[in-house]
Amino acid sequence: MRKIYFLLITIMCSIFSFAQEINGTIVDEFGNALPGVNIQTLKSNKFATSNFDGSFTIQGSIGEQIKFSMIGMEDLIVEASQNMNVTMLQSVTELETVVMIGYGTAKKRDLTGSIVSIKGEEVADKPNNNVLSSLQGKVAGLSVVNSGQPGSEPDVRIRGTISLYQTKPLYVIDGIFSETMDFVNPNDIKSIEVLKDPSSLSVFGARGANGVILVTTKRARNGETQINYNTTVGYKNITGKPDMTNAEEFKYLYDMQRANQGASPYPYYNLYNADTDWVNEIANDNALFYNHNISFSNASEKNSFYAGFGYSNEEGLIKNELYKKFTASLNDELQVTDYLKLGVNVNFLDARLPRLGGFNTALNTTPLVAPFNNELGVYNQLPTDMGAAQLGNALLEVEGKKGTQLNRNTKIVGSVFAEVALLKNLKFRGSYLASLDYLRGRGYLPVFDVYAAETDELVHYSGNVLTKVNQFSNFKQNLQQDYTLTYQKEFGKHDITLLAGHTRYNEYLENMSGTVSQYAPSYDDDGIDTNQIPNDPRWWYLNVFPYGDPTTRFSNSTQWDRATMSNLARILYNYDGKYMLNASFRNDDSSELRKDQNFWAVGAAWEISKESFFANKYVNYLKIKGSMGEQGNQFSDLHYPTYPLYIPGQSAVFGEELVPAYILAYRNNPNLEWETVTSKEIGFELGAFDNKLSLEVNYYDKTTNGLIAFIRGTDNFYGNLGKISNNGLEFVASWKNTIREGFDYTISGNLTTLNNKVHYLNDEGYDYVSDPTRTTGGQPISYFYGYVVEGVYQTYADVLNSPISTVGDYTVGDFKYKDVNGDGQITPEDRTNIGNPTPDFTYGFSAAVNYNSWNLGVDFQGVYGNEVFRNWGNGSSFAQFNFRSDRLGAWTGEGTSNWEPRMNDASGYNRLTSSYMVEDGSYLRLRNVQLGYTFKNEFLNNLKIKNLKMFINAQNMITWKNNSGFTPEFGGSPTSFGVDGGSYPVAAITTLGINVTF
Question: From which residue to which does the signal peptide run (predicted)?
């Protein structure tokens, strides 16, 4: 009987739990009641509609998920409770999207310039620890050159190279100015805005010329409590491995080379008879990559809280490289009263940095040597004639020095703000922002014995007999204060937003580094040096008592600080939704210069499609726009360039006392100003065929006037002495279409042309040289400079009929250099532009398909028309290193080759910097492929999960390229980039991932 009662009670409870009435009210984000909202219980599948006052009643159970949907509003799913207060957000089109514009926001439709907004979900699940890497190929005008090294920062440029000292844009993360984005967890990002045009950049004044990338991190959504977990795990591998000779091929070429020099075949092949692929020896195949991210968010009418935590573990493509990173973020906003809001934002990074290496030594090392001598238990030294003086044992560098460098980076970036509604349409916001960056490290140089087969003895590796310790510490502190007044008012057909602000920015850096060596070796009876510093991190300090020899201790320090103070103003005006006007002004005062500077911009746009005379059944949206203005660039290679700097000069003796003398490092120029970049843009935006087609075309022109240059000569000084221009076209197009419910696709692409020119630099003929690049007037910045190879001399008659050379002797089989100036001689004056590292255009295109719960995305990215300089593998050196396989086609007689010269490393003539080392840098890369599956609600309801997605991602799997190296993309400085040192490939990465929300 008891069981029957229990069963009846259970049944009644179940009936009661499902028969409850759930009630509540629904409003929009402004508190207005929403009638006609469709309401559905997802478990019991009951339906209802909200009343005219937004109230509703529906049959359901407490805790059950309820879906609210309405045309024009975003769908919302929440857990059922009694007396529910539901807030729905307006569903906006892409044009109505609110984007960040610096010190504020604006609707994309109201902009007069080019701001590209990227949603956080587009970068969250990509296998890149630095979010900038995921932007490659996504944005017209944005160049991202990636490196495969763990923890490395991409080379980022917006609309060209505009200065001799700085290329990277300004990063603004939740209002905080930053020089890097390594501390930002991609999973915590809500949106990224790339600012390119003058109307959006001039408000940043002397920091805006290189462009700005704004990052907004996630906040909690009102009415939701949410836990999200995202993880990816996968592996990385080398792609594009260069073709090098094996042992037999190397012997063939090396003996040919010796024969051409009049020498007999190499006599030690019996000692060096291995066939080693050095790249394979040091490569870390299937390098592990994984990350875990979890976030918590909760929001009510008064408080919004978000916290995210991430952990990444990334092995490098070289053995024993390991990059670990922990990130944390916190956002909390509290609406204290109707007129006062307070907020805090904190980002934290703690990274363990690897001891980075490269593959250039592995590429250059002869295959004849085995890395390790198993019989003696030591590593082998390279042959004397094959690079022993220039190259180390690549495997020893990787394995023998494992764990001998401990580097760590800790960064805290945060802000607090108060926002006060002074009047109905006027608000004041005060923010205090700070960035503290602490990079430190300790390392150890051990002593190794290696086997020299030629002399059959053990010798010290690289001739080093002393153990050594290094230690460094780098502290960077940025403090920022922003105070802004914003007035926003709509009256009639007018919509106006006014901004006035005052901001201060302080930077401080201190750096200390040093080394110390052990005392002179003292060997015991077993031949052990008792004075060696122990290979134990406990002893890796400069004051390493009792091992460190104080007389060898060397230290150095650097420190500087600077400050800027700025006033800014901006107006955004919209009349009748058709005519837009933006204007901005900023005044910057810097401690490094002796006078302030003004920057400004104005932009206008006309939405023609809203005019009564415009009636086109195909075109839904058409806006023409234009802007112009001035931005600044505050970077030089020295702080306080207008103030005296003294360096040691000649000393004098007074009696028995030596008195040092100091002289000016350069002549002071009190009139020096920051560079001014005058920018112009004109373009249009189009939406057609029911907005399935979107098209945007922009022409841009950026001209740097007053280019800062340091002139070296008899009179060293800084001056505003140059002019650089960058101009081109940007095309962005997409096609979105829905085949039927649950089946849609998107095809999109972008292309940017770029023409870069240095108009002048000081006096005619003055140049900046960073071999093999050169920057001078009349040429693109950082072009490759050398001799033009017209072929290879085939006969002695050809040699006799050719110009004489003042740069070296040549004979048959050597390069035929072009007599560029036509003076009948080959002289240094015949060097010319042999390649441009700046591409003619960059592009990216993608396709995405959504079919029910499946989604597939494919991204391609590429560049065209640039060159890269090969600085390895018979480039600047022909001899003792390993040979590229192309050298198997070297000239051996008339007609055998007209590009690969004869084998003869003694001929310095063939080693001159020339177009032989220049290769086509154009490429097309399958950047990303991702297949995902999102589980349906009926499956998730039983697990009490709001959202669950699983995906597989493949990145950089195929690259169609023409150069010899691992990769065709190489960053660098403004005056030296595009140089292939054979150092590191961009990895192919395959990952599996899961994203689940509770």
Answer: 1-19
Predicted pLDDT of residue 30: 62
- The rounded Cα 87 to chain-centroid distance in angstroms is 38
By the 8 A CB rule, do 917 and 872 touch? no
What is the DSSP annotation of 772-809? TEEEETTB-TTEEEEBPEEEE--SHHHHHTSPEESS--
Query: Which two structure tokens, joined as six digits, stand for 766?
Result: 């003055």
Contact 306/219 with Cβ under 8 angstroms? yes
Which segments within 492-576 are labelled E, that is strand? 494-517, 554-575
Residues whose CB falls within 8 Å of the CB of residue 29, separated by 6 or more in sequence, listed in order:
87, 88, 89, 90, 222
Residues 6+ apart with CB under 8 A from 70: 34, 36, 37, 38, 88
- Quote the CA–CA distance of 587 and 736 in Å, as a whole number: 43
CA 8: distance to chain centroid? 66
Instruction: State both tokens at 352.
Output: 């363990």
H-only helix segments in 427-551: none
40, 67 in Cβ contact below 8 A? yes
Of the candidates 256, 69, 454, the residue with the CA atom closest to the CA atom of residue 904: 256
Mean pLDDT value of segment 757-786 = 92
Burial class of residue 943, CB neighbours in 10 A (0-12, 13-18, 19+): exposed
Both tokens of 93, joined, read 């089109």
Residue pointed to by tokens 């691992």? 966
Domains of the chain: 2-88 (2.60.40.4130), 617-864+918-997 (no CATH)
Q: Give the number of other CB atoms < 10 A from CB of residue 146.
A: 25
- What per-residue confidence (pLDDT) applies to 87? 85
For 231, 267, 357, the CA distances from 380, given in Å and listed in that order, are: 43, 18, 20
Task: Please state whether the predicted TM-score (pTM) of the whole model is above 0.70.
Answer: yes
- Amino acid of residue 159: R
Joined tokens for residue 373: 């001598």
The answer to whether 754 touches 841, Cβ cutoff 8 Å, is yes
What's the first-to-final CA gap in the chain, in angstroms?
42
Residue 470 CB neighbours (<10 A): 18
Pairing status of strand 804-805 against strand 825-826: parallel
Residue 399 DSSP one-character state: I
For residue 782, how many other CB atoms are within 10 A of its CB?
27
Other CB atoms within a 10 A radius of the CB of residue 439 amount to 17
Indicate the pLDDT class of residue 223, thresholds 50, 70 and 90.
Answer: low
- Identify the residue whose tokens are 């600047």: 876
Confidence of residue 91 (pLDDT cuts 50, 70, 90): low
Average pLDDT value for the chain: 89
8 Å CB contact between 56 and 49: yes
758: closest CA among 742, 775, 733?
Answer: 775
Closest CA to 893 of 794, 818, 968: 794
pLDDT tens digit string along 620-638? 999 999 999 999 988 877 7
Q: What is the DSSP letter of 814?
A: S
**What pLDDT digit, counting tens, does each position of 875-904 carry?**
445 446 899 999 999 999 999 999 999 998
Cα distance between residue 107 and residue 581, in whole Å: 13
